[in-house]
Amino acid sequence: MRKIVTSVIATLALSTATLSAADSYATVNGEKITKNDLEVVLRNPNIDFDLLPKDRKDKAIQQAIEKKLLTSEAIKSGVQKDKAFKDALERIKKDLALEIWMQNQFKKIKVTEKEQKDYYNTNKSRFKTPATLEARHILLKTEADAKKAIEKLNKAKNKKETFVKLAGEMSKGPTASKGGYLGKFPENRMVPEFSAGAKALNVGEYSKKPVKTQFGYHVIFLESKEPAKTLEYAKVQKKIEEFLLQDKFRKSISDTAKRLKKQAKIVIK
């Protein structure tokens, strides 16, 4: 519970600077109900209150009003003089100080364009997309049935149209209703025999021999094929920047912690 309270307080403290007078949605005895108050009752600062449906807005505002009134009542009771209150406040102050300090430390971290490009050039393998296939199949229980399907395809004028029709009529499994369509997938995602059979085809071709797998006998139609490629720097630059910022920040905090440990007198009991 204390962690939740601390997290909420830290979030509100860090977001206060972005608020304006327009962020008032009600008043209680002259005290404004702001987005800060609503974030607390919604328990998620990432929810945009203005985009919520009216009934959810009304409920949140009523909850915030009740919280204001109950908080006022708690203060009037003199709870701030309680030892438990004072102890909890000190703990929250320390956690909040750490939270804001770490936010400030992160703001100091900078990553240059050269660092980003160097990381990209030395880690290109991380930005590769695998070769992909787009295929349909007709799945049959026996090799004889698969050969019959292939014979029908051999005689057909419109191969793809006939393939889709045969998949709907003959194929076993959930893809039959979709004309045997399997979608796009990394070329090695399927069982090895199927992947090898699909990769061996040219786009627009179907397998002339049944492909046997643990599921049965397949006739495969290859819709498209895309080779493996490395994503361009421009497409991954933002992710690289975010990664390097986080990495530098973690190292900075780790180095600071190590330095402080060396200077501190630590007794573990």
From TrEMBL:
Swiss-Prot/TrEMBL keywords: Isomerase, Rotamase, Signal
InterPro entries recorded: PPIase_dom_sf, PPIase_PpiC, PrsA_foldase, Trigger_fact/SurA_dom_sf
Record SUPFAM superfamilies: FKBP-like, Triger factor/SurA peptide-binding domain-like
Superkingdom as given in the UniProt entry: Bacteria
GO MF annotations, alphabetized: peptidyl-prolyl cis-trans isomerase activity
Domain named PpiC: residues: 130-224
Signal sequence, renumbered to the chain: 1-21
UniProt cross-references to PANTHER family, sorted A to Z: PEPTIDYL-PROLYL CIS-TRANS ISOMERASE HP_0175-RELATED, PEPTIDYLPROLYL ISOMERASE
Protein name: Peptidylprolyl isomerase
Source species: Malaciobacter halophilus
